[in-house]
Amino acid sequence: MLKIEKLVAGYGKVRVLQEVSITVPKGQLVTLIGSNGAGKTTTLRAISGMLKPESGTVMLAGADITGMPSHEIAKRGLAHSPEGRRVFSTLSVADNLELGAFTRAIGARPRGEIRQDRERMYEMFPRLAERRAQFAGTLSGGEQQMLAMARALMLNPEVLLLDEPSMGLAPLLVEEVFATIARLKERRVTMLLVEQFAAAALDVADYGYVLENGRVTVSGEAAKLRGDPAVRAAYLGAAH
Amino acid sequence: MLQILAQLIVSGISVGMIYAVIAFGYQLTFATSKTLNFGQGEALMLGSLVGWTVVAYTGYWLMLPVVLAFGLVQGAVVERLGVRQAIKTKSESGWIMATIALGIIFRNLAENIWGRDALKFPSPLPETPIALGGVRVLPMEIAIVVGAIAMMAAVELFNRRSIYGKAVVATANDRDAAGLMGINTGRVITFSYALSSLAAAFAGVLIAPVTSTGAAMGGALGLKAFAVAIIGGLSSGVGVVVGGVILGITENLTGYYISTGYKDVPGLVLLLLVLSFRPAGLFGRATIKKV
Ligand SMILES: Nc1ncnc2c1ncn2[C@@H]1O[C@H](COP(=O)(O)OP(=O)(O)OP(=O)(O)O)[C@@H](O)[C@H]1O
Ligand SMILES: [Mg+2]
User: In chain B, what percentage of residues exceed pLDDT 70?
Assistant: First the structure.
């Protein structure tokens, strides 16, 4: 469904990604782990068009989307819940969700469908339902994180990129986020998940990639990576 | 004595609303792109002169949609020619020079087409003042206040209610994130320039029946409205109305009690004060992200 090959990208003259190749098959959950500054966020940005790759290819559902502007890529069904939430702070929760469906809202689709999708999001995240009329900027960090995720889902994406959905959340909320991801997986949403909680990510994922200094160093079945001594030592910690 | 004061205040309000509308236009482009059209005054002047030509054929009310459409196109042209490249290359000041240069070009163009003299603009409303509790008000002055508020309210309604308006607000909040929603943010910025020139052109045909029009009318208005925009806050609609009205009244008082020759001075002094007290942080307050 999503296939990136030999992706090279960076900021100005600084190269961050060195020929990164990742495949996310349809209906699967793939996780990308690695230490701070390894280039995980940069990878997602280069996929979704927030950053123009220097070389390499990004294929979405068989079509080459390399270097397209992000709004074109969104139209083709790729949703990206970016690092740091990035909700629209002076718009209400309901409006944030509506904008998540912007590509559909401006098409011929009936409005009712989008409203129904929004109701589904409220069922999935009851806390958002209570705060639907509130400005997104006034939500707590955890609520903003849920909103960012729900907003991305409003696109009805072919592929969903999630960048550290648990960042800055209390342990209880982290569990909630992972439960949500597991539910999305049951619904066969194709996902690429970047997480700092590598162990938890490998628990829900089908497949995993380890990124080090802009290169994929290890990859394999999630369960296998979980048992790999080198991965355990570097990313999972002794406690796991 | 008091009556004269009241008179000066009331007629200052309508001029102040014109400043508010132009300043509102500055806010529109600043919100989405952190850039301003320093040719706003010339956009007002062009709109007004186009209106002067059209009004002879159509009358005032039918002239309005033509002028508004012209404003949209003119603003889009400014963005395409002067601003887009600067935003793309993240140039700090390219857009400043470019929009000033375009403003000068527009002014030269206007001088060649309409000449340098002031032109009388026919008023759609009776030109005899109405007495309101001892204060004499021109019907057109009331129309200016109503028109200005209606225009700002219409934009606000559009932003709050329609999906495209929400896309504009989203772009203003976080351009990259808006792009991820599928919003073509480059087009949103073009649109905000178009809308800002539309506001200026509208202000141009609102004020013209009271003051007359001409190629020279834009410069001072644009500068003074800039001061209003900075003082009122580049993101506060209420701020520019308050700032604009205070300036309009102050100018009238200066004109009466000191000399009409010094009427433009308060606004320009205000501008100088703004520039000297907040030289670097001119755009500071509004750029701080609200979280
Ligand atoms: N906007 C930027 N400009 C310049 N360099 C950047 C920028 N963003 C990231 N970098 C650099 O690129 C490298 C990779 O950053 P990236 O954000 O992709 O890491 P990450 O794996 O997501 O890390 P984290 O786990 O901390 O989120 C880092 O060395 C970082 O300093
Ligand atoms: Mg990151």
Answer: 95
Question: Are A73 and A166 part of one and the same domain?
Answer: yes
The pLDDT mean for chain B works out to 89
My answer on whether A67 and A185 are in the same domain is: yes
- What count of residues does chain A have? 240
CA distance A41 to A46: 9
Give kind and range of the element (H or E) at residue A184: helix A171-186
Same domain, A165 and A240: yes
pLDDT digits (tens, 9 = 90+) for B206-229: 999 999 899 999 988 998 899 888
For A175-199, the pLDDT digits (tens) are 888 998 999 999 999 999 999 889 8
What contacts B56, CB < 8 A, 6 or more positions away? Answer: none
Burial grade of A172 (CB within 10 A; 0-12, 13-18, 19 or more): exposed
pLDDT at A109: 63
Q: What is the CATH number of the domain that holds A20?
A: 3.40.50.300
Residues of B with CB under 8 A from a CB of A: 163-164, 166-167, 169-170, 172-174, 176-186, 289-291
ipTM value for the complex:
0.93
Domain boundary residue among A128, A157, A186?
A157
Question: Over 70: is that where the pLDDT of A240 sits?
Answer: no
Measured between CB atoms, does A74 come within 8 Å of chain B? yes
Both A170 and A72 in a single domain? Answer: yes
Do residues A172 and A196 share a domain?
yes
Q: pLDDT (tens digit, 9 = 90+) per residue, A104-136?
A: 888 766 678 899 999 999 998 899 999 999 999
How far apart CA B257 and CA B7 sit, in angstroms, is 13
Contact criterion met (CB < 8 Å) for B179 and A79 = no
Residue of B159, B162, B168, B181 to mutate for A, most A C-beta atoms under 10 A: B181
Q: What percent of chain B has pLDDT over 90?
A: 65
* Cβ proximity of A81 and A159 under 8 Å: no
Atom 4 in ligand 1: residue holding the nearest Cα: A11
A50/B179 Cβ within 8 A: yes
pLDDT tens for each residue of A143-175: 999 999 999 999 999 999 999 998 878 888 888
pTM to 2 decimal places: 0.91
Q: Which of A157, A172, A204 represents a domain boundary (last residue)?
A: A157
The parent domain of residue A203 ranges over 1-77+159-240
CB contact under 8 A, B174 and A71: no
Q: Is there a contact between A1 and A61 (Cβ–Cβ < 8 Å)? A: yes
- Spatial distance between the Cα atoms of B180 and B228, rounded to a whole number of angstroms: 35
Q: Based on the fold, state whether residues A109 and A220 are members of the same structural domain.
A: no
Give how far A98 is from chain B: nearest CA, Å.
Answer: 8
- Asked if the Cβ–Cβ distance from A99 to B181 is below 8 Å, we say yes
Please count the structural domains in chain A.
Answer: 2
Same-domain check for residues A177 and A213: yes
Mutate to test the interface with A, among B180, B184, B289, B290 (most CBs of A within 10 A): B180
Helix B237-257, helix B139-161: angle, nearest 10: 160
Q: Is the CB of A37 under 6 A from ligand 1?
A: yes
CB of A45 within 6 A of ligand 1: the answer is no
